[in-house]
Amino acid sequence: MGPELTKKERCMLDGECGEGKQQAMEILLALAKIYGAKGMVPVTSAQISGVSYKTIGDAGLEYLQDLAARGTKVEIPACLNPIGMDSEDWEGMNVPEQFAEKQLAILKAYVSMGAKPTCTCTPYLAGVRPKAGEHIAWAESSAVIFANSVLGARTNREGGPSALCAAICGVTPNYGMHLEENRVADLIVKVDAPLQDRSDFGVLGAIAGGVARGRAVAFRGIKKAGEDELKYLGAAMAAFGSNSLFFMKGITPEWRVRDGAEEMAVGGVEMGRMRKSLDSGPEQDIITTGCPHASLAEIKEIAGMVKGRKLKKPLWVCVSRVVKEVAAKRGLEKVISDAGGRLVADTCMVVSPMEEMGYRSTGVNSAKAVKYLPTMCGQKVHFSRLGELLEFEGGKGKKVGKR
Ligand code: F3S
């Protein structure tokens, strides 16, 4: 027997709510059949990936324009992943004009369907913050694992099209992470190494993700971790192992471990080995941080590190527009721009055309960025702690801060 549909879902499928909704419901139903879902579950928000012109190209743009032209609208709050540039300052970023025109057209199509141009991988820092137990349909992998693990919300790792369909219909197939019986760890990771900063959490995530390969992970031995640290951990797990869920004893809202789960230990030796393997050497034309997008607390910390100094290399701090505006009001943006850096909103080092802007090597403190910068942007990547990446006129940054 196939998935059961409600009356409303059946109406959408029959085309009574318009062609766009019909097409979206057909896709959701096909996915439900593939994954063995018994039906759909209503979702309170959708987060849509596939927004950068760099990733979806002309074919994606035409598809979205066609959908929008047929009057298709989203049914629930829908927000967008980063685009390929700062929508208000793309010229300042040296983004080629032809790229910018296409990117703005993509944004226009989404907005005309009712999506919010949040353009961030951290919607939970930009006003879209689901509660524990809430069902959502999010696509960005780092946001998916954060929502499941840190917020206790429920989402599968949607693709861009399936998240868009969920936004249009207000439902998603009820399988995987939506069902409590699947929210159980099959791998226990015992951590016996000091985690000094966010980059260490990324290193740990790369190790755990690589071993877990999609299985939920339960971490033991970590005494303290704030949201920013968990954000870096989850982003790396998702990038290196396609993980969507982790638990941390005493820190995350859920903790479920399967009897007989595999166990592994991570100590200083494993951490050092992974850290070394992520770094391709000290060259850096530019330093980028905010992968996932930076929180206000991170920006405050960076402002403290660069205050009153002059950076030798360009610095991008990637953020959502919402957070950038707050940082501007608090004077933090000015401190960073006076030092020669910039808060780059709406985009990031991976989805912007960095290679077309003349950059060949990038310094980062995010393990996730290490994973994608070489393939997506042709970059050689220097991975280190932020305090060690920052170089100033008249001296290095090491003494200024350890992050
Ligand atoms: Fe976000 Fe871009 Fe990193 S989308 S998670 S800043 S690769």
Task: Give a structural overview.
The protein has helices at residues 7-13, 19-34, 53-69, 97-112, 141-151, 160-169, 198-212, 227-241, 268-278, 296-306, 321-329, 332-338, 367-377, 386-389, and strands at residues 40-42, 46-48, 78-80, 137-138, 171-173, 185-192, 216-220, 246-248, 257-267, 286-289, 315-319, 341-345, 361-364, 380-383, 391-392, 395-396. The protein is an alpha/beta fold and 403 residues long. Mean pLDDT is 96; it is low at 398-403. It is globular. Helix 1 packs across helix 2, helix 7 (198-212) packs across helix 9 (268-278) and helix 10 runs parallel beside helix 12. The structure holds FE3-S4 cluster.
**According to CATH, what is the class of the largest domain?**
Alpha Beta
Number of spatially distinct domains: 3
Largest sheet: 5 strands, parallel
Evaluate the radius of gyration.
Answer: 21 Å
Oligomer: single chain
Unreliable spans: 398-403
Strand/helix succession: HHEEHEHEHHEEHEHEEHEHEHHEEHEHEE
User: What's the total number of strands?
Assistant: 16
Number of helices in the DSSP assignment: 14
How helical, in percent, are the residues?
Answer: 25-40%
